[in-house]
Write a structure and sequence with these properties.
Layout (H helix, E strand, L loop, with lengths): L3 E2 L9 H12 L16 H18 L6 E6 L2 H13 L4 E5 L2 H11 L4 E6 L21 E4 L1 E2 L4 E2 L10 E4 L16 E5 L10 E6 L16 H6 L9 H17 L1 H22 L3 E3 L10 E6 L5 H10 L2 E2 L10 E4 L6 H17 L1
Parallel strand pairs: 1-13, 3-4, 3-5, 5-8, 8-9
Antiparallel strand pairs: 2-10, 6-7, 9-10, 11-12, 12-14
Bound molecules: pyridoxal-5'-phosphate (PLP).
Family: Belongs to the class-V pyridoxal-phosphate-dependent aminotransferase family. SerC subfamily.
Subcellular location: Cytoplasm
Function: Catalyzes the reversible conversion of 3-phosphohydroxypyruvate to phosphoserine and of 3-hydroxy-2-oxo-4-phosphonooxybutanoate to phosphohydroxythreonine.
Length: 354
């Protein structure tokens, strides 16, 4: 039986994407060769890479606006350092909204001093700080749009005179935003776009080339742009599968269409959390993530019953992160609303048993 997959990452992908990807592994497009055993310089693969890069910009509404899309390796975690190498000259400002922000700060600090413009650490990151200043003489401002672990999400981004850099690993392509307000966006593929193994970077070209340091080739965005995102062998399977997911998304009507679905799923989930006295939401209401709903079960004695019921209903991947505890329902683009209905039914059934 296919499970209801609420995994936080790597996470659920559309069934049709999995099917097409697995076919390509055996025989790409009737070529008699597997996608993963052909040259990345072949016309077939160069075409895949170019379509994927173009579709990213199309879906984000960034075509013709001076942006380039890259499919890199090393995860979002490598971007923590790479973005700083490319953009940090004197000082940068960081918004600290959780574990991933903290890691981004730690890596940038290897190069230079950074300044935390605000932090919600004092409340175990259950909210998004709102009032803070971003000094206009800094090199860039960095934020994390969706805090996967804590279940908070930035709803409104600050006005920013300097390049705004955003880690969108867990909510890219999930909601409509003016993406042109960002100078650089990055996201590990494995939450909302594809399998692990590639990281999407979308960068406005004119923010590059301003630092004085020597940037090692493999860490240099300009070099990656110059080589068409093929400076070295790209992760061909991850890029192709990401392309399939992006095509699936476009077929549904793009970000505008999926956003409506994501809002419906989140409404259903949070209304159960709020109405059911057995459960309590972790994140402050106004900052709740549409992607990751974090909540706790108030009565510890019901834990085993609840978890057995979840298992019997085929619900998978709802255990909370160790730093928050409780439960986390990740509702990425590919998760059907019916899966949320199943989870919510289990929660309400538990209430009748309590
Ligand atoms: C998962 C995640 C990361 C880490 O991504 P890797 O690809 O594993 O390095 C970074 N930031 C956020 C917001 C995440 O959710």
């Amino acid at each position: 039986m296919k499970k209801h997959n609420f995994s936080a990452g790597p996470s659920i992908l559309p069934q049709e994407v999995l099917l097409k990807a697995s076919e390509a592994v055996l025989d790409y497009n009737g070529s008699g060769l597997s996608l993963i055993e052909i040259s990345h310089r072949s016309k077939d693969f160069v075409d895949i890479m170019e379509r994927a890069r173009a579709l990213v910009l199309e879906l984000l509404g960034l075509e013709g606006k001076g942006y380039k899309a890259l499919f890199l390796q090393g995860g979002a975690s490598t971007q923590f350092l790479m973005l700083a190498m490319n953009l940090l000259e004197k000082r940068a400002g960081y918004l600290n909204t959780g574990a991933w922000s903290e890691k981004a700060i730690k890596e940038a600090k290897v190069l230079d001093d950074i300044y935390e413009v605000a932090s919600s650490k004092n409340a175990n990151f259950n909210y998004i700080p709102k009032q803070y200043d971003i000094p206009s003489d800094y090199d860039y401002f960095h934020c994390t749009s969706n805090n996967t672990i804590f279940g908070t999400q930035i709803k409104s981004f600050p006005k920013c005179d300097i390049p705004m850099v955003c880690d969108m690993s867990s909510d890219i392509f999930s909601r409509q935003l003016d993406f042109s307000q960002f100078g650089l966006i990055y996201a590990g593929a494995q939450k909302n776009m594809g399998p692990a193994g590639t990281t999407l970077v979308v960068v406005k070209e004119d923010i590059l080339g301003k630092v004085s340091r020597n940037i090692p080739t493999i860490m240099d965005y300009k070099k990656h742009i110059g080589s068409g995102s093929m400076l070295n062998t790209p992760p061909v399977f991850a890029v192709y599968t990401s392309l399939l997911t992006l095509e699936w998304l476009k077929g549904l009507g793009g970000i505008a269409a999926i956003e409506k679905e994501n809002e419906k799923k989140a409404r259903l989930m949070y209304s159960e959390i709020d109405l059911n006295p057995l459960f309590k939401g972790f994140a402050t209401k106004e900052d709740r993530s549409l992607m990751n709903a974090t909540f706790t079960l108030e009565n510890e004695n019901l834990k085993d019953t609840f978890e057995t019921m979840l298992k019997e209903a085929g619900v998978s991947g709802v255990n909370g992160h160790r730093s928050v505890g409780g439960y986390r329902a990740s509702m990425y683009n590919a998760l059907p609303i019916d899966s949320v209905k199943v989870l919510v039914e289990v929660m309400s059934e538990l209430e009748t048993k309590a």
